[in-house]
Specification:
Layout: E1 18-23, H1 32-45, E2 46-56, E3 58-59, E4 73-74, E5 79-81, E6 91-94, H2 95-104, E7 107-113, E8 128-134
Parallel strand pairs: 1-2, 3-6
Antiparallel strand pairs: 2-8, 4-5, 5-6, 7-8
């Protein structure tokens, strides 16, 4: 019940302030407009050469076999949820969309490590990890 939506929130930090930004299990609970704004803000506050480490649920229609966590309910063209009655409980984003979003914000992806959620492995790296640098 905040005064500003996540889609309009401006981080209270100056441009190019941080060498590293780390988010775990944040974008997995946010809608598309919120994620787009937050990633743009992350790019804004990162110094050139800075690193962003962010976890996601990334889905790809080419995933075989189908992941154990069933992101079956479309939220929009690029995101799905496991629980339509409570979509923010777990949100997955289409991998190609996420890769385009990073490029749009000036973040260059260096690594994508797939987490165990696809196979039902819930220890270690559960969510997908995207590591990127600001050019």
């Amino acid at each position: 019940h905040g005064l500003v939506t996540a889609a309009n929130y401006v981080f209270p930090f100056p441009d190019e302030r941080f060498d590293i930004v780390f988010l775990t299990s944040v974008f997995t609970h946010m809608f598309k407009a919120d994620v787009e704004n937050y990633l743009a803000e992350i790019a804004r506050v990162l110094k050139p050469g800075g690193t962003a480490l962010i976890t996601w649920f990334l889905w790809d229609d080419r995933d075989k076999p189908a992941p154990v966590m069933d992101f079956h309910a479309d939220i929009d063209a690029v995101s799905r949820t496991t629980l339509p009655e409570n979509p923010e409980a777990a949100i997955a984003f289409q991998r190609d969309y996420v890769e385009r979003l990073y490029a749009k914000t000036g973040l260059e992806i260096s690594t994508i490590e797939l987490g165990g959620w696809r196979e039902g492995v819930f220890d270690g790296l559960v969510q997908d990890l995207v590591v990127a640098r600001k050019g």
